[in-house]
Known about the structure:
It is built from 26 helices and 24 strands. Helix 1 packs antiparallel against helix 2 (40-56) and helix 13 packs antiparallel against helix 14 (467-475). It is an alpha+beta fold. 39% of the residues lie in helices and 19% in strands. Bound molecules: 2-(butylsulfanyl)adenosine (IVH).
Amino acid sequence: MSPAAKKRAESAAARAENLRNRIDEANYRYYVLDDPSITDAEFDALLRELVELEKERPQLRTPDSPTQRVGAVPSERFTPYQHARPMLSLANAVSEDEVRAFDERARKLAGSAVAYVCELKIDGLAIALDYRNGSLERGGTRGDGRVGEDVTANLRTINTIPLRLLSFEKLRTTMGAPNDLLEVRGEVYLRKSDFERLNAGREREGLPVFANPRNAASGGVRQLDPALTAQRRLSFFAYQLVDDVAGLRTQWESLRYLAELGFPVNPNVARAATVDEVLAYCRQWEERRDELDYEIDGVVIKVDDLALQERLGVVARDPRWAIAFKFKPREARTKLIGIVVTVGRTGTLNPNAVLEPVKIGGVTVKSATLHNIDYIRSNDIRIGDTVLVTRAGDVIPRVVGPVLTERTGRERVFTMPDVCPVCGSDVDHPPGEAISRCTNAACPAQVYERLRHFASRGAMDIEGLGDVMAQQLTELGLVGDIAGIYALDAEQLAEVPRTGSKSIENLLRNIEQSKRRGLARLLYGLGIRFVGSQTAQILADDFGTIEAIADASSDELQRSEGIGPEVAGSVTLFFKQPSNLEMIERLRAAGVDTTAPKRARAAAGKLAGKTLVLTGTLPSLSREEATALILAAGGKVTGSVSKKTDYVVVGDEPGNKRAKAEQLGIALLDEAALRDLTR
Ligand code: IVH
């Protein structure tokens, strides 16, 4: 190598290292601390440069490079992963008395008072990670506790699992030095929000849905193709440092140390000096579990002092230094009395379980979703079955499956009706699809759902046209489609029972005012499949008029940010239907504004350039509605609070986002204040 070439190679190596450090740091700030330090575009630019550099000089491509998270080739099967130290399970405590008994025994064996660390018991799957000289070398599942499966390639795709320990070099010289070989254990899980998104997508594609986030996480870790694992967007919390690290004396210090190494550590951990404090923590989190964006099924109580842990040791397979306090199950058995089919906005037939009322986690449940016919078939759910029902957080109750041992033989297999239960028209069951649809676009059930959606706050916001009015208007045949609203007059409205002249006057005025909501809200109100308020806003901004959107090809639509083939296909399909075009013509003729202010004007809204986060339940706006209002005022909505957040909109039972906002000194808004800012 010539001296010049050598120099170039050296500087390329230095540049690669510099890029890797900056990307790792940005990744950590974004995913683990939830406090981004650079923009997405800056991040992409760094990653792209590193990819290019590694392509030119493959010898620079290290296994712990951030470019190596995805892209490993699928494997045929997993190789065994031998645990250096057995991965233990925990004994359960199902009552406060059992926790007290655990404490008493620990105190007796210790011969002194015992302090604890309380951690949330994350409902996912346990994994082990091995780091050699600070780089992730291998990772495995628990398996039977002695041998698990080597799922390294899959674990690499999880953004919060560091490929390189963050402060490895620094910690070597300051706190207890990490060993050359360091094993960390923790829980892989799926956020509730990611779970809902995953299932919604699967439902659209006619794939079987997952019963709970844990199953989806555990299936995700066991994919043979890491690209599929990556799609699930799994998350991770570290909770155990397996090897002794000089200088660390307590579990509490270990957790802090794990955080220093760049691992995500659950923020809701607490130290407890007495068993009463432990129990207070357990009660508090059993109460507050719905505030979290991940499922927990209990609390893990650990003796804080590591030397004492060692002394207490293990009996059979359970350590005597830790116990799992299990929350009351939010699962119950009950009878499936029947299945009723409702018709959605787009004509989909949705099977719903009618249940013998049963209390689950303090709430009486008498109906639950059954998703679609595939779900019913693949789980072999029959009418008359005793079924297992779960209610998980803000997720709607769902029937998990039948209790087969309770079968009597008198249960009936359910079939989807061939005619619409509402209008009697033919039902289309496209082969290979899980979804059945009523073929009549004028079906009152569909019209009703569409009207309701069109008039809702995030859409055209027509006060006085709520559920009841929408139902009466469709039942009386006064409105046949959305545009029909604008043809209503006082005489017709007088036919609606219990509607006085004052409310007729108000409703007509509100209908009139709704004509000026603009393209984004109109587009959202049309209820086109996959077009939520965010997508509607983007299309309105980019295209400006409804004709421009109607005339756009799928490719043209896909040039807009975040519009993929699925959304584009749905939009073009909508505007291909002559009946829809004719309806839009009538909307326009009635004077409904079908244009959007130019981007520049939208950007001058009261919330232009502002980032907002929503938390808790607002008194009268749904999440979707609040989002639509914010977008229309030029603002942006994100999922988590960071220094870049301008406002946090707080409703009832806010999550820890409120606390975080207060900590960072971010302005809080209630619904009234939000309405003021978006008017
Ligand atoms: S400690 C010996 N801490 O619960 C210590 N486990 O049966 C064992 N889990 O297999 C684990 N959150 O999958 C620990 N903060 C936490 C945990 C936790 C969830 C799971 C883990 C383990 C099971 C205990």
